[in-house]
Amino acid sequence: MLQWIVLVLALIKALNACSPTNEHEQSIYCNTQYVFQGLLNGFNISSEYSTYRVLVTANLKGKIRPTGHSLNVYSSGYMNSCSPPSANVGSVYLFFVNSNPWNNRPTLRQLSPMSLVYRIYYQQFDCSCKIDVNMEGYAQITNQVPRGDKCVLDGNNSCGKMKGSCKRSASWPSTCQWIPIAC
Prior knowledge:
Distance between the termini: 55 Å
Number of strands: 9
CATH class of the largest domain: Mainly Beta
Largest sheet: 5 strands, antiparallel
Oligomer: single chain
Radius of gyration: 18 Å
Number of domains: 2
Strand order of the largest sheet: 3-2-1-4-5
């Protein structure tokens, strides 16, 4: 019986192989427990997993550690279908991290180069609005929320929407709408 469970888990892992995400940056930000700015002090990679040794310099979403404290963040190793994101020791990055439900380890979801523009960009997202994806050539993402609580990324002005955000209007009734930026 245990062999069957291991086989099924291996197949699930293979079927969820690495592929580019079609999630909007706002969805990634909003569906991540912790987003923080950190100085990469060390990086170790093995076949199973990678370890990023990070000094937290600012918490943007959630508080993974107090500013000035270090932690290890884990990612897949080089033998996994999704190899770990490469990073340079001594550089500052934005870390998107979730707590792994199996072992409580901080697990890397996304790693972005740090810049003030990125930091401001991520902090302006409205997480009360969801984003559906309905574009040709992309996997469809549909959030089961009322129409006024989401925006649809549909290929119409996709560049402006991909770089923009979905926010609630100030007028009543408050509905979510695209705030595109010029490309």
